[in-house]
Amino acid sequence: MIEHFDTIYTRNKGATNDDFKNLYAWLRGQNFPSQVVPEDYKTLISESNGGIFLYGEREYQFLALEEVIEYYDLYHFSEFMPFAYPFAMDGCGNFYIFNMRYDDASVYAVCAGDMGWEEDECYFVANSFKECLSQPKHWDE
Questions:
Q1: Looking at the 3D structure of the chain, how many domains does it have?
Q2: Can you count the helices (H) and strands (E) in the chain?
Q3: Beta strand 84-89 with 58-62: parallel, antiparallel or unpaired?
Q4: Which of 15, 41, 80, 81 is the most exposed place for a label (fewest CB within 10 A)?
Q5: How many Cα atoms sit within 13 Å of 93 on the Cβ side?
Q6: Residue 139: inside a domain, yes or no?
């Protein structure tokens, strides 16, 4: 999946099976209703566990799996957006998230300083991770 991007600013070593086991243990421990991350996301993270990539005008600052857990706590997702899975930032202070309240692979964006599940706080980006990555324009255009 890495080859999809126009520019790779930073690339990390890929996530291991143990990294994914730790993530799934954390999801279970947090009682996430859905505990399955999309397969194409897993493929990308297996190639680079975090990193900064550009496709068109869209920047992705992918969080390493351990950073997903760290940012979930640091930004108080459990309080403001329970069961949101922050997988990347956009370079402008917004998170890309999966809504893991349901078995829904849709991608949303939310401002790190104004988080919530309401329509004026959380914005639909794409029906899937793959669809999100195929969009060259910034998500709010």
A1: 1
A2: 5, 7
A3: antiparallel
A4: 80
A5: 5
A6: no
* CATH number for the domain that contains residue 13: 3.40.1580.10
Instruction: Flag whether 141 is in a domain.
Output: no
**Is residue 65 classed as helix, strand or coil in its secondary structure?**
helix
pTM greater than the 0.90 cutoff: yes
Helix, strand, coil percentages in the chain from 3-state DSSP, rounded to 5: 30, 25, 45
List residues bridging with 51 in a β-sheet. 11, 62
- Name which of 89, 4, 85, 13 is nearest 46 in CA terms: 13
Segment 88-128, tens digit of pLDDT: 999 999 999 999 998 777 999 999 999 999 989 999 999 99
CA distances from 98 to 64, 86, 133 (A): 15, 7, 13
pLDDT of residue 78: 94
- Domain with 48, as residue range(s), is 2-133
